[in-house]
Amino acid sequence: MLRKYVVALAITAMITATAVKPSRAVPVHAPATAAATSAGLYLPGGLIAAVALLCFYDLWLKMNGQKNWDGTPLSAPR
């Protein structure tokens, strides 16, 4: 489970690092469309939300006894 959190944190760090640094390429002034603007805002947020939901689902399975805490499958139904 710790590995999932590390992956989610690494993805968040990569998205943040690429969004903060300005590009060194020659700037091209293209008109910003609504689709490009909204995709640029919602894509990282959706990715982070999906990872968070998967982590919460994993915790929910473990708390209900449907999955072991160490990640191994259950040997017998409870």
- Listing every helix as H and every strand as E from the N terminus to the C terminus, the arrangement reads HH
Ends: how far apart? 22 Å
- Give the % helix: 55-70%
Shape: elongated
Largest sheet: none
Q: What is the number of helices?
A: 2
Beta-strand content bin: under 5%
Number of strands: 0
Secondary-structure-based class equals mainly alpha
Overall radius of gyration: 19 Å
Low-pLDDT stretches are: none
Let me know the average pLDDT: 74
Key terms for this structure?
mainly alpha, 2 helices, 78 residues, single chain, 63% helix
Blueprint of the fold:
Layout: H1 2-20, H2 34-63
Helix pairs in contact: 1-2
What does this structure look like?
The protein has 78 residues and is mainly α. It has a domain at 1-12 and 37-68. The protein has 2 helices and no strands. α1 runs antiparallel to α2. The protein is elongated. The model has no long low-confidence stretch (mean pLDDT 74).
Write a concise synopsis of the structure shown.
With 78 residues, this protein is mainly alpha-helical. The chain is built from two helices and no strands.
